[in-house]
Each structure stands twice: as C-alpha cells, then as structure tokens.
Design brief:
This protein is α/β, with parallel strands linked by helices. It has helices spanning about 75-100, 110, 115-135, 150-170, 180-210, 225-235, 280-285, 300-315, 355-390, 425-430, 450-455, 465-470, 485, 505-510, 515-530, 535-550; strands at about 215-220, 240-250, 260, 265-270, 270-275, 290-295, 320, 335-340, 340-345, 395-400, 405-410, 475, 500-505. It folds into three domains: about 5-75 and about 215-345, no CATH class; about 75-210, no CATH class; about 355-550, no CATH class.
C-alpha cells in the first residue's frame, strides 16, 4: 500500500507501490474528547499530564519505525530545479548533435549546413518545445519523481508524442523538415534525458538515506489501518514519505497506544500521536506536515474526507488516500468516476492467456542466448567442482513447479556429497538462520571451498538455464520450492504455483537469504499477480547488480 495521486503511477518490482483517491469508505468522521480550552485532544496529552502540557507536543524531528529522522519540507521544488537543468543539458546536447553528425550516409541537410540560420532557429524552437512538453507531460510532477517507473514512462511517451507530431506536421503540410530530428535528436535526447533522470534519482536516494528530501506525512485513520500503512511505508523508505506523526481515533486512547518512557508521549509503533480525527487539517498545519495520508477506515468516512479536502484546499498540503489495496501494481488499477464517486477497478492477474505465451517466448530466447554466452564459463566451473571435491559436478534435486508438478532442478554442486544426510543433524543443533520454513545457515560446514565462491555470486544456479529451456522453470519467477515446503503452504502461498518458478525473482533482488518467510511469500505472490515483461527486465537488471554485490547470499 503506497501513496500517490494518479493510480497509474504505481510501481511494479515490487509490492511497494501506489494508488489513490478512494472516498468510498463506509462510516462517518469520529469525534474526539477534548480538554477544556485546549485545541489538542486531552487523550493525546503525554501520559500523566493535564491540559497544561501543550509544550510536550511541539513538532518533532524524529520518527520511529525505521523511517528517516530528518524531514525536510519543500524538497520538490529543489529537486525539480535539478531535473530541469539536467533535461536542458540533455536536450541541448541532442540538438547540437543533429547539426554535427556528418558520417557518410548518416549526414543530413542540417549537418551538411550546420550554420544555416533557418535550421538553427528551427532547432532552437524544437528544443524549447521539448522542454515545455516534458513539463506539460507531467514528467516532473511531485507524484512521480524520485520513485517508481512512471517518471521514465512519461518522459518517453512525451518525447515520442512530440516528435510524432513533428513528423505528422511535416508530412501533412509538406514542410520537408530534416529527418535528422527524428534519426539523431530524438534517440540522442532520450538517452541523455533517461541518463540524467537516473543519475539524479541515485543522488536523491542517497540524500533520502540521510533523511533529506523527504515529504512530512501525517497519517490519519484507526490504529489498525495506520499501523498497516506505517509498515508499508517502512518497506520503501526511498519513496520519500517520512511520517511526522499520526492522527487516530479517540477510542484507542489509553489501552492500545504505546507510551514513550522518556517523554510520556503516546505513540503508535514509535510514531507520536499528534491529534484526533476532527481537526486533521489544523494538526497538519501546526506540525508542519506537507502531506496528509488518509487510510481506508470507517472512522474517517467520505464526508470527513470531502471536508478535509476543502480545508486543505487553502494550503499547500497534499491530500492522498491509501485504500485497502495491497500488493497490486499500478497498471492493474484504474479509476472510473460514477455519480461523483471514484470507483477503483482492479484488472485480473496477468499470468494467463497470451501473456503466458509472451513470457515463455522470452524465456526460451533469453535462456538460449545466455547458454551460448556462458558456455565457456560452464566448462571452467564444471572442472573446478570436479577437481576441488569428490563427487559429481552437478547436483539434481526434486523441486515443485507449475501447477504443483515436480521436476529435477540442476545446479553446480556446492556442497559435499552427503549434504542431505547431514541436514537433520544441523537442524537438531538449532543453527537455522533461515526464516522458519527454509533452512539457511551461515558458514554451513557442508559447503565446499569452491561452493562458497559459487554461492556468493550465484554461479551454481547458471545450469538452471537448461531447466528454463526444457520448460520446467522461467528466467524470472517465484523461488522453486522443495516438496516439504509445499506441504506447509497456506492458501496465499499456494499462489506461487500458478506460474513457473524462476532462476531469479523479487526475492532475489530484495534480500535473498535474509528475507523472512512472510516477506518471501509476499514478494512471490505480488509477482504472480502483477507480472509484466517490463518487470521481468527490471528484475533481471537488478539481479545482475545483486549478484555482483553478493548481498544477502550465504
């Protein structure tokens, strides 16, 4: 569950992304018991204090639950200015390139006469129009910059739309505009723009790790929905939502709230309670929030949301709504207004029909190319395993695949031959560093010397390419489970069997061996329900980075 203004701006690597504008929650705004003569609900006061303790509710810089300790307001304009500068450099570089490219058949009227005044004027006009189009196309909107793929999608769509319009005008009005604009300026500009946005995003993420360039969020709802949203935001700190505090129902005042032993302040999962539900706008302004996130709750119904939107209309505070939709990617979510009510439509999962054919074709072509590329390495690894430890070079094991059918998965052997026989002994020693379902052990004594190197960089899994070609596995998908694991699956975990298991997946790029069992299931089911070819390409790219850094592997 994440936040945003446009449902289409959700991300797909991950179940960390976004949907908005739900006002169909049932119920009405709840009141809160107030102390006499105070704008702050009495039950929010520090434990053991009366109404004279307003000073204890001064705006706080720190937040709990692993979120950023420093929340800087106004980060959007600062960051947007940097994007404008980067875009300008990229557009100018591409425009100059159209006048400079002159290599044999790649020359054009523009490059053959680069000093032509009409061509220079036309190039300047096109460059200015491109910069304006990037602004009008929403590629620098606060809702999309800094996190998720929507920023890149808008940039590409706007650029192609602009140059498509230029080409159509040239044809319809017989303008004979230089083809260099389409053949040189567009591709060069796109490369420069995407590279600039990528670099700036890495810079932004580095600042956010230090607590800078964060939105200051006030979360509104009941305890259950507030805690769910805090957990989801904690999973995606680079999205830039730093929780300043929460406003919760007065009915949860005493028994359900934590008490900070140092300050006596009432807390929810380490985040201070700043107010109730009646004066959310006033609380947000008093504590300097720039975003109010309303969770789906009967305690804060449609009338309360509508009233809050009018109260915030006079301010710069953004209102976002987090409906009870989790692990659903943006492309599956569509908003349709009906009688003034924005209904959220959720498309069916994408693992059936033609999508399965597309995925299988991608797997076959990709695995064959990778086998051809890594064939010399296979020989070296096979010889290394044989020469460094007794036993076969390959290890075969029964795994469960599509629809619960079993298959024999192939790996380079990284353990001693009797590793399976010694498993029970290690389990009895309670040295499991796994997640309760999968047995994992740091410094596992069964791993050979060469096996430790293979596992560190996941080289032992390269032979699974043969399983992909055969159709037992996919390049990207859920982790291939053992039969004993499947026997313990609950209903949600069984969704992993609706697609072929993968050589890599969201679990591989999100922590590998360090993930809890719940997170592993959550990531795998998210992938099953929200698969796309684009997400596969992104996961493969992230896998390469994760493998090279050997993070989370043991």
């Amino acid at each position: 569950m994440t936040l945003g203004v446009d449902p289409s701006s959700q991300t797909g690597p991950s179940p960390l992304d976004e949907v908005t504008n739900l006002t169909s929650a049932v119920g009405s705004g709840a009141g809160s018991e107030r102390s006499q003569g105070s704008a702050i609900p009495k039950w929010v006061m520090p434990y053991g204090h009366g109404t004279d303790s307003d000073s204890a509710l001064l705006p706080v810089a720190g937040v709990g639950h692993g979120l950023s300790p420093v929340l800087n307001g106004g980060w959007v304009e600062k960051y947007r200015l940097r994007l404008v500068i980067g875009d300008l450099i990229g557009v100018v570089w591409a425009a100059v390139g159209a006048h400079m490219v002159h290599v044999g058949s790649f020359s054009s009227r523009v490059s053959r006469d680069p000093a032509s005044i009409p061509f220079i004027a036309l190039t300047i006009f096109l460059s200015i129009t491109w910069m304006l189009a990037l602004h009008w196309g929403g590629s620098r909107d606060a809702e999309v910059i800094g996190h998720g793929p929507e920023e890149y999608k808008r940039l590409v769509q706007t650029s192609f739309g602009l140059f498509g319009l230029v080409a159509i005008c040239s044809y319809v009005f017989d303008l004979h505009l230089p083809r260099a604009y389409v053949l040189v300026t567009l591709p060069a500009g796109l490369i420069a723009l995407l590279a600039s946005r990528f670099i700036w995003r890495r810079w932004l993420h580095a600042r956010r790790r230090n607590g800078e360039f964060m939105s200051k969020v006030l979360v509104v709802g009941n305890l259950r929905t507030v805690r769910e949203l805090l957990t989801d935001l904690n999973r995606a700190p680079l999205a830039g939502y730093g929780v300043l505090g929460v406003s919760v129902t007065a009915s949860s005042a005493v028994e359900d709230l934590d008490i900070d032993p140092l300050t006596g302040r009432r807390m929810v999962d380490g985040v201070p309670v700043l107010g109730g539900l009646e004066d959310v706008a006033a609380t947000a302004q008093a504590f300097g929030a720039d975003t109010v996130a309303v969770t789906s709750s009967a305690s804060f119904g449609p009338a309360a949301v509508r009233r809050l939107s009018w109260e915030l209309e006079k301010t710069d505070i953004q209102l976002v709504l987090a409906p009870a939709l989790t692990n659903i990617a943006g492309p599956r979510v569509h908003t349709k207004p009906v009688a003034g009510l924005p209904l959220i439509h959720v498309d069916r999962p994408t693992y059936r029909g033609a999508n399965r054919i597309v995925k299988r074709s991608f797997d076959v072509v990709g695995s064959l190319l990778l086998l051809l590329l890594f064939s010399p390495l296979f020989v070296v690894l096979m010889a290394s395993v044989k020469l460094t430890s007794p036993g076969p070079a390959f290890f075969r094991q029964e795994r469960v695949g599509l629809g619960g059918k079993t298959f024999r998965m192939i790996k380079f052997r990284s353990m001693v031959v009797d590793a399976e026989a010694r498993l029970a002994e290690l389990k009895s020693q309670q040295q499991d560093a796994g997640n309760g379902t999968l047995f994992k052990m740091k410094n596992d004594p069964r791993i050979t010397s060469i096996g430790r190197f293979l596992r560190r960089f996941s080289l032992d899994e390269l032979t699974q390419l043969f399983n992909v070609v055969k159709g037992d596995m996919s390049l990207v998908g859920p982790r291939p489970p053992l039969m004993d694991e499947v026997a313990t699956y609950h209903a949600e975990a069984k969704l992993r069997l609706l697609v072929r298991p993968g050589m890599t997946g969201l679990w591989q790029v999100s922590g590998r061996s360090t993930l809890s069992w719940e997170d592993t299931v959550r990531l795998d089911t998210y992938y099953v329900e929200n698969w796309s070819l684009t997400s596969d390409l992104v996961i493969l790219w992230k896998t390469a980075k994760a493998v090279l850094s050997s993070s989370g592997a043991f």
